User: Fold this.
Amino acid sequence: MAETGKNITPPTFPVAQRMPLISLCDASLCEVVRTLQVKVIIGIGRFAQDRASNALQRQGISGIRTEYLMHPSPSNPMANTGWDAIALQQLTNIGVMPYLTH
Assistant:
């Protein structure tokens, strides 16, 4: 978070600090995927989906489906109107709603 309280997004994070952080996150994600035998990863935003796909590929992990939900960012006009309905529709389209409801 910036001193102003604004979120620091990955593209604006200094590269010298971003890359080590991404490496740690990638390694942790792959450890969780292996431990929990994950079949589907749903990233919040395409950046998260791409990061997951890249991490899995670098670790030689295959057979995991990666999907995304639209990120609820204030800078995304679509996310500012009815994000919850959009997210529910995306989760339905991905096919995971039966696992999230009773």
DSSP finds four helices and two strands in the chain. The radius of gyration is 15 Å. Strands lie at 40-44, 65-69.
